[in-house]
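User: Fold this; tokens only.

Assistant: Input:
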Amino acid sequence: MEQRRIMVVEDHAQTRELLQYNLTAAGYDVRTASAGEQGLDTMTRWRPDLVLLDLMLPEIDGLEVCRRLKQLPSLRAVPVIMLTARGDEVDRVVGLELGAEDYVVKPFSPRELLLRIKNALRRAGGEASGVEDVWRFEGLVVNFAAHEMEVDGEKRQLTATEHRLLKELVQARGRVLSRDRLLDTVWNTDFEGASRTVDTHMRRLRAKLDRYADCIETVRGVGYRFRA
């Protein structure tokens, strides 16, 4: 099996070396960067499978790196795990809204981090979920295997988070999914205050669905339901 590639962007040398050591020992192919611009340049050329991204970086911070990464068609589907010394709810919410897969607060357990990485790679890999690889409704075509969507023949780019969110909705079509359920299955988090992240991504997903936006129904006080 081909080694999975992990990019580490961390300005603290000791933490960077610790991450590289543990990830390499776990069988991953690892590259590191100590600053945001350097990390983006390496990611563009190397195309990692996952990014570990420190929040506090020189030049540009981790939030800006994540924002730029998610704007690149070749990298927007790459899962990002944020590393932060701050546990502030605002930082976590903003990171999730920008498309981060998960977050880990320092100091962290290497064993827990490796488990989070494994889970993130598994979700990004599109394990079997009971939903067909290609799903169609009138002019809406979603290729879940290729992470692609077409609306009336026009391709629409989905981020990794939007892709997982749409997949959950389509798989459960006709049933109401609560915000807590979506936070657990799509973002793998349940911290208080993150529910607004679900609403933000729903607005973005509806905008990309265009005339099919109404397929996503808001069930007031509960969550969302997909009807097609």
